[in-house]
Amino acid sequence: MTGSREEHGTARLTIRDVAARAGVSRAAVSLAFNDKPGVSASTRAHILAVAREMGWEPNRSAKALGERGTGTVGLAICRPARQLGLEPFYMEFISGIESVLTQRSSALLLRLVRDIDEELDLQRHWWRSGQIAGSVLVDFRREDPRVPVLAQLGMPAVAVGHPSLTGSFAALWTDDGTAVTECVRYLAALGHRRLARVGGSAELGHSAIRATAFAAAVRELGLDEGRQLATDFSGEQGARATRSLLASANRPTAILYDNDLMAVAALSVAAEMGLRVPADVSLLAWDDSQLCQLTRPTLSAMSHDVHHFGAEVARALYDVLGGERITARQMPTPVFTPRGSTGPPPR
Questions:
Q1: 282 in any annotated domain
Q2: pLDDT confidence of residue 83
Q3: Tell me, what CATH number does 135's domain have?
Q4: With the C-alpha atoms ordered 167, 168, 169, 174, is the resulting torsion angle positive or negative?
Q5: What pLDDT was estimated at residue 57?
Q6: Which of 150, 245, 298, 337 stands 20 to 30 A from 269 (CA)?
Q7: Rounded to an integer, what distance in angstroms lies between the CA atom of residue 187 and that of residue 217?
Q8: What distances in angstroms separate CA 121 from CA 113, 114, 118, 245, one per listed residue?
Q9: Average pLDDT of 196-211?
Q10: What is 19-69 written as a DSSP string?
Q11: 340: in domain
């Protein structure tokens, strides 16, 4: 069956496709897939061999191949399991997704992966084996290899990222560049001239957007310094970056962190180095989870409703599954929420 849909990767494999390629009836394919009597051993082996050549994943029922998914939503995240359990953003984000899935009696299939190649293999497996109706894609990179591969598969998906990163997928995003710029301007208005930012990996699209905005704002305002350090978002690396900054000859008087976990770790580092927050150094978090209000002093933060963000992502995916054409939906821009960890620089 030269030129079939599955050869071009544009649709999910169906019983009809396998039956046509193998030269048997659809009933025979169903019996073979479900390991039921009614076909000979040689016919069953022939059908399964043909199906595997066409991209079928074993151990799935004919029902999954014949229907358009099960309503289950896939989410793959490249994070160590221990770190994910401590990361407030993803806990709130996932809870937002679940709040919508529960209303629809659906489920979330969550997997942690080591790298983007493992995620690509996983997404292919999920889609071809009928385990998911669609997927939520996160942590986009510039020239992200998932965009062309998953688009060719025809897998419905919603992307969490700036539209410049997400290709043809429906994108939900926040204007992180504007948020960073407003943060730098606020700190400059307090009198700070030596700023620093502790962010994520430079290959991540949203980290690159924040880094570019931070550097541009520092230049625009004519500030003395705007150092930036990359981390893996963990508390350990956030603490290490903070020690490096605070031990430098011209230490910054204010530091912006890309998540709450690193900012909390920074409070401990400042204390161990005998520095007062905010009298000696101001610290700002990003996301504004409950952690920010449990510390002493409480953490100023770039605040947005992550739970609502997750819920809107899930709703957008169901819109896509329902045939609605979505290009991009901008979510509310994070806003600066001042608390006890920011103030004027030391004299």
A1: yes
A2: 80
A3: 3.40.50.2300
A4: positive
A5: 61
A6: 337
A7: 11
A8: 10, 12, 5, 39
A9: 95
A10: HHHHTS-HHHHHHHHTT-SSS-HHHHHHHHHHHHHTTPPSS--HHHHHTT-
A11: no
311 vs 297: CA distance, rounded Å: 31
Mind giving me the DSSP string for 194-252?
EEEEEES-TTBHHHHHHHHHHHHHHHHHT-SEEEEEE--S-HHHHHHHHHHHHTSTT--
Q: Give pTM, 2 decimals.
A: 0.80
pLDDT of the residue at 85: 76
299 and 225 share one domain: yes
Percent of the chain with pLDDT over 70: 92
Give me 127's structure tokens. 């889609």
What is the number of other CB atoms lying within 10 angstroms of the CB of residue 224? 12
Same domain, 157 and 190: no
Residues in contact with 138: Cβ distance below 8 Å, sequence separation at least 6, in sequence order: 75, 77, 160, 161
The maximal CA–CA distance of the chain, rounded, in angstroms, is: 87
Q: Could you tell me how far CA 169 lies from the centroid of its own chain?
A: 14
pLDDT, residue 260, reads 96
In a shared domain, residues 19 and 127: no
What string of DSSP letters covers 282-303? EEEEEE--THHHHSSSPPEEEE
Q: Which amino acid is at 206?
A: H
Is 1 within 8 Å of 21 (Cβ atoms)? yes
| Residue 5: pLDDT over 70 | no
